[in-house]
Design goal:
By secondary structure, the protein is an all-alpha fold. It is 90% helix and 0% strand.
Length: 58
């Protein structure tokens, strides 16, 4: 149990740091670019994966 708790804390910290960096770096203009759209799609996919994993643990 301790191993999985550390894993999920690490995943959560990484996602929070990535979200904070993405919020600071991405503006409305950059979201129109292909890179901005790809980053957004990746963020949405990660959010869905984390939600799915968290619901399975409950």
């Amino acid at each position: 149990m301790k191993k999985s708790t550390g894993f999920w804390l690490g995943i959560s910290a990484g996602l929070a740091a990535g979200a904070a960096a993405g919020t600071m770096l991405l503006s409305k203009e950059s979201m129109k670019t292909q890179v901005g759209q790809s980053i957004h799609k990746l963020g949405v996919a990660v959010d869905h994966a984390v939600d799915s994993a968290a619901s399975e643990l409950r």
